[in-house]
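Appendix B. Raw example, untouched.
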Amino acid sequence: MTDPRNLGAVARSVAAFGGHGVVVPARRSARVTAGAWKASAGALARVPVAQVPNLTRALAAYQREGLFVAGLDAGGDTAVADLTVADAPLVLVVGSEGRGLSRLVAERCDVLARIPMAGATESLNAGVAAGIALHAVAAARGLS
């Protein structure tokens, strides 16, 4: 994700749906800026944001610790509402605006999930997609 406003929106959704934090790559990604703070409506004060030097390696470390990694991808085989791992420890990966998930990150994911959409819309804003997916996970956990 490269737009700080999307980072703020994601942090806001993470806070709203019971997530524990946000991880962003150290290079070529959004930073916590004034725009991110404004979009988060204060959620960045409660949601930790960590920068990692290599996202693929960070995801592998999460998997070794027993977390499942689900990537959001329009071509995913599983609808977000049908994620069977939603009630387990989970990392939800949102790609960058326009390009989505990188090949290496997508290959690292345990499952690729899609947000079913009606109509001609090809993709959603990264912040919006994250909010929808986080809501689906919260619903699967009985939190919404």
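End of appendix B.
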